[in-house]
Amino acid sequence: MSIKCTVTTDLQTKDTNGYSGMQKHVEHDSSINHSNKDIVFDETQFNIYGESQKIRDDLTLWNQEHFQEYVDEHDQHQREKNHPERQYGSVKNYLSGKKKTTAILTIGNMEVQSELMKKFCPASSYSEEQLPDGSTHLVFKLKDNNGKPISDNITVAKKFYDCFNRALIAATNNNVGWNRNGKRINIGDYLHRGRYATNNDEMGISHIHFEVGTFGMTRGGKKRQAHPTNSLNQALVSLHQAVTGETVSGRVAIKWYRASIDNYALKCLENELHKTYNVPSKTQILNFERKTKDDPTVQTGLSMEQLKAQKAELADHQSKITQAQADQKKAEDDKQQAETNKKAAEAMAQQAYNALKNDYERVTGHKAVDSNNNPLSVQKLGEGLKSASESMRETVKQANEDKAIADQAVKALRASYKALTGKEAVDDHNQPLSPLECSRRIKKLTKKAQEDQTQAVSNQQAAEEAKQKALQEQQNAETARRTAQQQLDQLNQEIKTTKQKRLQAVTRELADNQLNYNNGEAVTEDNLEEVEKAIDNWRQEQRHQWQSEQTKNTQLVSTNQNLTTQNQQLKDENTNLQTTNSDLQSTNRKLITDNQTLTNEITEYKTQLIDTITENEPTHKVEQSRLQSGEVAEEVQTYTGRQQHQRQPLKYLINTVKKILQHLKQDTETFINDVTRILQPQKPITANTKLESHYLDPDSIRPTKHPFNAQEEKRLMNNPAMKLKKAILQATQEQLQQAQQHIGHSIQKDTNGPDFN
């Protein structure tokens, strides 16, 4: 059976410090006195911290890519408006005054973790501990009784917590996203994760704190065009629009974002548990649940601090309700006790009445009823007993006065005794009682009857008083119950009224100051305390800002006079500098143009030189000493060799071409000399020899018009080309054919290259 598991995502934009302001909170250093008392420092070793310089640089570069163009346009606009003091100067300065966004992603809770530990971890690796609220929670046993680490249990705990670490990091990666119309849209394009820290040591609530770089576009209007912003609300709206194509409010966008991330995070943890513990793919371990459906007192999507504050408020309210219920129960118990006392009093009154009734019937010999056969009241019974007592007293008196009728009196006395007691006037030995003993006993009985009458009346009065008291206590209990209920209702109403007043005051203050909580999130009773806390922080910031501005204003007033004096000087200097700057810019542009032209010419010249080298010596290589370490010299006819030559100075290339051309000249002269030797006549030419040439018409020879120059003639006579021309003119047909064959063979050899056979 799968385990029901909740996931919550909390995005916060509290201040300009961002992740840096909460860094000590997430590091869980045991030497610091943390306000969070739920930290298990033995498990801090399983946390993961992604705070490297590479991650910081990556977020900085991301911000540069998204806001640099906007900052440049803004600064240029301010310069054009003669407000250079309003320039940002850089993306870092632009973002320094903005509120930074942080986020918390939480998977599961203490109950979920305990269930997973029971499912995947040995029972010997953990123990059950009781929390301050009376509930229990499973904690890994990482040390024995002597404080020494238990390596096996540490391995089990690391394996278990690494599943949460990987799932939390994977769920918040910047490459998580959607494919829409052949285009990839990542969350990191709008909400870019920076530094992060996973916490697995807070009483079983595994979560990740991470820094969020935000980017979105404002909607724009008639007065101002849409522009980039780091507002969390606009980033969420822009992300939703990019994915769905719909424009919605910030409230709808954040609900959509949380729903997407929460479901994906649970899938990440499900996959990690399957891979780590080799669970079959068909077996579902976790089942996503929103606790608000079953328990309206618990909301998802809240931060840990918000959840604790909400629970504390509910606990306080519950304690008041419990006290009122206890008072009501006490009132009901008092009412029940009064009923019991009333019944006891009625029973005592009935018992007293029965005793009085028995005495009456025994003394008078008549039933205790009136003429209508109704039971006599206590008063009537007392009067009857009193009358019988007086009658017996008169009888005794008459017996004392008239001894003559003593026997009758004794008889009457004994008869009265018998009537009173229902027994014969005899003692324990069955001997007749003396008249004195009979009188004494009758007197005693009469006195007892009077006492019984008095006691009955007293009991009746006590019963009436007990009855009245019970009724009074019942009324008091009912009054107390009603009072307790009224107090409870009044308390609830006061709480509700106070919250409404606070809610109205907060809403009014937000509207008056044009503030938005959590990027446009509406103020409700659930987030009222967080909004009030945020407003208090805002007031404090405003107060500090006002004080700072007052100080700055005083300083500005004191320095304004100096600046005014210096302003004219700066204007004059600025005019001169502008003139000089204009001249320098013109000169600079000309130099840049000349430099570019020269660079192009050098590059072109280098290219021509390299082409000459390639054409005349394609196997030429740059000296190894001129190359980089580990680089191998290549022939100039290859691409690598050409690049190696291109990197060399122009002077080197010129010298190389000179050497190649000099060598080529020597080869050419040698070749020409060889051809010339072939064409030279074997015998000296006589005066009668007739010169013939296929290429020269003797009739075309004319006298030169130029003056004779001996040095020039000598140079021309030694010139290989002139020698070749002269040899051609003097060569025979056979020599020309030999020369042609020699030239053809040489050309073919150069064309085919060396023969390795």
Automatic annotation (TrEMBL):
Residues 327-341 have a biased composition (Basic and acidic residues). It comes from the Bacteria. Coiled coil: none annotated. Residues 311-341, 447-486, 733-757 are annotated as: Disordered. PANTHER family: EARLY ENDOSOME ANTIGEN (PTHR43049:SF1). This is Replication protein.
